[in-house]
UniProtKB/TrEMBL annotation, chain A:
Span of domain Protein CotJB: 11-86
Keywords attached to this entry: Capsid protein, Virion
Origin: domain of life: Bacteria
Protein known as: Spore coat protein CotJB
Automatic annotation (TrEMBL), chain B:
Pfam families reported for this sequence: CotJA (PF11007)
Organism: Fictibacillus terranigra
Protein name per the record: Spore coat associated protein CotJA
Length: 87, 70
């Protein structure tokens, strides 16, 4: 059954991807610059941003992760399609 | 073609093969930046994702220098 996802799904995921990349870069940067408070504030800002984004995505499209990293819908739906590689 | 340098290897008169001409090697920006300074300007998240780095000072895209010769 072919259910194409709304454009908003891709847009939200791309935004999440961009925020994740910034967090990765900042983590690596902060490993060598532990006292850079401006970057730490930026890191915390984006960490909070990511939580909001994750909440928004999961409320609409179901859990993204497992083992307690995401809330589950009813019925148990973490393994329902589409999987990340199918999207 | 910002961070690319080239050299011409010596071609001996007894070398049966044709001369190679110009050879290129890459010198990315992090070579010249020992310790990353604080508060460098940053890309926007979307642009950083596309360009592969958060800081324009470290941005180094690949462009095949040999393409132009052929």
């Amino acid at each position: 059954m072919e259910t194409n996802l709304p454009a908003e799904y891709y847009q939200l995921l791309e935004e999440l991807q961009a925020v994740d990349f910034v967090l990765v870069e900042l983590t690596l940067y902060l490993d060598t610059h532990p006292n850079d408070t401006a970057s730490i504030q930026q890191f915390n800002h984006y960490a909070q941003e990511r939580k909001k984004l994750k909440k928004a995505i999961e409320s609409k499209y179901g859990p993204m992760q497992q083992y307690g990293n995401s809330y589950s819908g009813t019925p148990w739906d973490w393994n329902k399609a589409p999987w990340p590689w199918q999207v | 073609m910002k961070y690319v340098k080239s050299y011409v290897p010596y071609h001996s008169p007894f070398d049966p093969c044709p001369p190679i001409g110009k050879k290129y090697y890459r010198t990315p920006p992090h070579l010249y930046m020992t310790f990353q300074p604080y508060n460098l300007p940053q890309f926007s998240p979307q642009e950083a994702l596309k360009k592969g780095t958060l800081w324009p000072a470290l941005y180094d895209y690949y462009e095949n220098p040999y393409d132009r010769r052929s």
